[in-house]
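Good day; I would like, with your permission, to put a structural problem before you. What I wish to show you is a protein chain and, alongside it, a tokenised description of its three-dimensional fold. I would ask you to consider whether the tokens describe a fold that such a sequence might reasonably adopt. You will find the record immediately after this paragraph:
***
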Amino acid sequence: MAYTTRIEILRPREVPSRYTPGSVSLDYSDPEVIPVDMRVSLQPTASKEQADGRMSVVSGWFLSTPVGADIDLRSTDRVRALGRVMQVLGEVLRWPHPIRPGGVHHVEATLEEVTG
């Protein structure tokens, strides 16, 4: 894999929920920007068009870090790279290191970008 892409993590801010007192909602309008020092592999996977009242394109992406690299990426985050903003789909996978107990071998995440 080629680890050539620089990314930023866009972490939503927690704000008091307007609908459920005592709980919080995630606000993506002004996210915390977390730069990632290392380069990652970011590869396109699949793309499809949707026409549900408006035309849009949904593009899939696969993110992987180099061996021994862990990044602070969460399932609620978004990733900015290559002039695109992609949301994390599902859980972020942290593969255990086969030699170092408790260590991370690498991180994988499935991302999705919706345009249109």
User: Anything to note?
Assistant: Residues 30 and 102 are 34 Å apart (CA to CA). The radius of gyration is 16 Å.
